[in-house]
């Protein structure tokens, strides 16, 4: 008879996510994961499969959280405020201990996506989702008058999506709040 699971799966995945997010997939060892989750090797493998399977499940938790947060921020009225709030959230915690982690999806676009088709598909989906949700916010902004630029919403969203990883990387390498605010102001001028 199998022994009943004695841990909360979501909590374990969030702890694993934190390690993968901080160190990256390649630099994360089984010992790191065991220390973070307080689970044995057999419990980790028995419950989640191998390291890659655990990573994929943890990465998916990250993606769900970020999608929920993004949709919440971009639903603000007027729409321009939501767009600005979303982009400000990318560097809102410059002084926090995790600010150097950047966006896990951007990180994985570089680390794993070039050689792992599943991770690549997840990252592509993330960027498509960002584009779609921004497009809807821009259209709302054009309708409510908070976005004065009447170019195609898809084109404006494409510019904003292209800037997304750049802002993430600038924050990750330690650009200060003033520089980030200036970059954001230049980017948001595309809404005018």
Automatic annotation (TrEMBL):
Organism field: Pseudomonas kulmbachensis
Residue span(s) of domain HTH tetR-type: 6-66
Protein name: TetR/AcrR family transcriptional regulator
InterPro entries noted in UniProt: Homeodomain-like_sf, HTH_TetR, Tet_transcr_reg_TetR-rel_C_sf, TetR_C
DNA-binding region extent: 29-48
Key words, A-Z: DNA-binding, Transcription, Transcription regulation
Gene3D superfamilies: Homeodomain-like, Tetracycline Repressor, domain 2
SUPFAM superfamilies recorded: Homeodomain-like, Tetracyclin repressor-like, C-terminal domain
A Pfam family reported for this protein in Swiss-Prot or TrEMBL: TetR_C_13
PROSITE patterns given in the database record: HTH_TETR_2 (PS50977)
């Amino acid at each position: 008879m199998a022994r009943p699971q004695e841990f909360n799966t979501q909590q374990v995945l969030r702890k694993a996510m934190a390690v993968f997010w901080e160190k990256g997939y390649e630099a994360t060892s089984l010992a790191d994961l065991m220390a973070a989750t307080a689970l044995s090797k057999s419990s980790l493998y028995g419950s989640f499969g191998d390291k890659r399977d655990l990573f994929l499940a943890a990465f998916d938790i990250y993606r769900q959280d970020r999608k929920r947060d993004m949709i919440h921020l971009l639903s603000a009225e007027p729409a321009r405020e939501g767009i600005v709030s979303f982009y400000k959230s990318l560097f809102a915690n410059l002084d926090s201990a995790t600010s150097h982690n950047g966006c896990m999806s951007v990180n994985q676009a570089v680390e794993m996506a070039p050689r792992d088709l599943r991770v690549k598909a997840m990252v592509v989906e993330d960027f498509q989702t960002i584009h779609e949700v921004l497009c809807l916010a821009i259209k709302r902004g054009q309708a409510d008058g908070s976005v004065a630029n009447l170019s195609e919403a898809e084109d404006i969203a494409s510019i904003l999506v292209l800037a997304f990883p750049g802002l993430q990387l600038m924050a990750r390498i330690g650009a200060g709040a003033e520089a980030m605010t200036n970059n954001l102001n230049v980017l948001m001028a595309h809404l005018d």
